[in-house]
Amino acid sequence: MIKKYLLIASLFLLSLTYVSAQETRQIAVESSKVTNNEVTINGKRVPYKATAGTMPVWDEDGKPIASLFYTYYERSDVSDRASRPLVISFNGGPGSASIWMHLAYTGPFKLNIDDEGYPLQPYGYSENPHSILDVADIVFVDPVNTGYSRIVDKETPRSTFFGINADIKYLADWVNTFVTRQNRWASPKYLIGESYGTTRVAGLVSQLQNSHWMYFNGVILVSPTPMGLERNEPVSDANYLPYYAATAWYHKVLPADLQAKDLDEILPEVEAYTLDVVLPAMAKGGSLDPKDRIEVAKKMSYYSGLSERVILDHNLAVPTSFFWKELLRDQGMTIGRLDSRYRGIDKSDAGERYDFDPALTSWNHAFAPAFNLYARNVLKYETDLTYNLFGPVNPWDRSNENTGEQLANAMRQNPYLHVMTQSGYFDGGTDYFNAKYNMWQMDQNGKLKDRLFFKAYRSGHMMYLRSEDLKTSNDDIREFIKNSLPGKDVPAKN
Predict the structure, then answer these.
(1) 420 — alpha (psi -120 to 50), left (phi > 0) or beta?
(2) Interior/surface letters 142-153, b for 16+ CB within 10 angstroms, e for the rest
(3) What InterPro entries does its record include (predicted)?
(4) pTM reported for the whole predicted model
(5) First CA to last CA across the chain, in angstroms?
(6) Which residue stretches of the chain have pLDDT < 50?
(7) Is the CB of residue 411 less than 8 Å from the CB of residue 417?
(8) Assigned fold of 31-228+365-483
(9) Residues near 113 by Cβ (< 8 Å), separated by ≥ 6?
(10) Which of 188, 242, 266, 448 could form a disulfide with 433 if both were Cys (CB 3.0 to 4.6 A apart)?
(11) Contact 226, 441 (CB under 8 A)
(12) Residue 463 to residue 38: CA distance in whole angstroms
């Protein structure tokens, strides 16, 4: 009998434990945890309040259909919020959480990595001495199914969230609610997005401006996507040559005379050759004179580190996937897509493409443990939900994308709106020369050029992982914010 009661008691305790675990894995539609901290930025202590929590996405009837996780940092020794800039930060994917820029770029803490961005053990984090929190408050937002954000109404169609324009629409509503709740309508406001996040913020600034009457002072595009701006063949094929040259220079496989030059000397020369010779040659296709084809292939080989034979075999249009496999093939190494400074080892040296991206693989195992520790130990936000670095967001509707032109239209309508692009020379996923091409297409008549800015760095997709560029890129954001703040009582007019 005693054994029976002990068994019943044990089962009861197990059921309590199960209920407790289930409760901690439930999705909190609304929650918040506030902590106070301080960080040293540029040698000065900056006190701040951090709010980690969730806020709902509603349907048209006011029913919560999703819960978005966010982390909001406010400098706590500032009383005038009306003049205090607010930066709203998104990453990309499109199924990527905000962790990347949050814990490595603009936030008050950064993960432990070496000066070139390689992970270090034990995994963890430390103060970010270059955070922009000294000049702006920041909110990092995780879209649906990324981070701790989840759908809460299972009957809501996935198409409500997962598509270029659906994503922009519900996030604009969420941002509107956040800004209203935090009483930040008077503040100068900025959107920053990385990778697919640039597509997101380019569309968001237009949606917020035209549907919510919320106007912004700036948009920062970190490693931008095409944003719907056409670059079909031969433009898409020709535009990669400057990136190939930068990568070949980094790996020291260029001819000696070219290798002896600095990157700043080489790239303008390669860019000019791309526009003046390679692009017209590719446009001619099969009508290109065979002698001219050979001459172009020789010059492309000179700039890219690839053999003339390889370039001719690809009709001058060498795919990036082949480039990452081919450039260091004779050394038995591949190079990274998102950061071509990284090297990888494939199962076989043969083949047309690498087995994996050595850059992304390196980053993943540094970020995940660091954020899980940071959320619990610093932000004091506790949940048993998995923090999705990459969440399930498929199928993603990519139709009817026009975000680049939407951003350009928002600039034309809002004379206060400035745009800065930040790119890494060694980023092969969203290369720097195509980022320049974006700007040219957004401003075809040249009337926006005084409000368009471009910055490049000697690193990859996440340029801030390199210690030197973490400082420089954050300083560039500070300068951008400073220069895009109009003087008091300066009217918005062209």
Answers:
(1) beta
(2) bbbbbbbbbbbe
(3) AB_hydrolase_fold, Peptidase_S10
(4) 0.93
(5) 88
(6) 1-24
(7) yes
(8) Rossmann fold (3.40.50)
(9) 104, 119, 120, 366, 465
(10) 242
(11) no
(12) 25
Owner of token pair 């509107």: 176
Radius of gyration over every alpha carbon of the chain, rounded to an integer in angstroms? 25
Structural tokens at position 331: 């050394």
- pLDDT of 2 reads 43
Contacts of 176 (CB under 8 A, 6+ apart): 208, 212, 214
| Both tokens assigned to 277 | 């010779």
**What integer pLDDT is reported at residue 16 of this predicted model?**
37
283 three-state secondary structure? helix
The whole-angstrom separation of Cα 374 and Cα 341 is 28
Q: Which residues have a Cβ under 8 Å from the Cβ of 206 and sit 6 or more positions away?
A: 403, 406, 407, 409, 410
Length in residues, the chain: 494
- Which of 72, 56, 52, 34 lies closest to 177 in space, CA to CA? 56
Cα 189 to Cα 136, 179, 219, distances in angstroms: 9, 10, 9
Q: Which secondary-structure segment (H or E) carries 483?
A: helix 467-483
Q: What is the pLDDT of residues 166-197, one digit of tens each?
A: 999 999 999 999 999 999 999 999 999 999 99
Q: Which amino acid is at 442?
A: M
pLDDT 10s digits, 348-380: 999 999 988 888 888 877 898 999 999 999 999
* Residues 127, 385: Cα–Cα separation, whole Å: 26
Amino acid at 161: F
CA count, 13 A, side-chain hemisphere, 200: 31
What pLDDT, on a 0 to 100 scale, did the predictor assign at position 1?
43
**The residue to which tokens 């070139």 are assigned:** 116
pLDDT at residue number 492 = 77
| 223/427 Cα distance (integer angstroms) | 8
Q: Is 393 helix (H, G, I), strand (E, B) or coil?
A: coil
Query: What confidence score (pLDDT) does residue 394 get?
Result: 94
Residue of 358, 360, 365 whose CA lies nearest to 342: 358
Write down the pLDDT at residue 179.
98
Q: What is the pLDDT of residue 25?
A: 63
Domain boundaries, the chain: 31-228+365-483, 235-356
Give the pLDDT confidence score for residue 188 in this predicted structure: 97
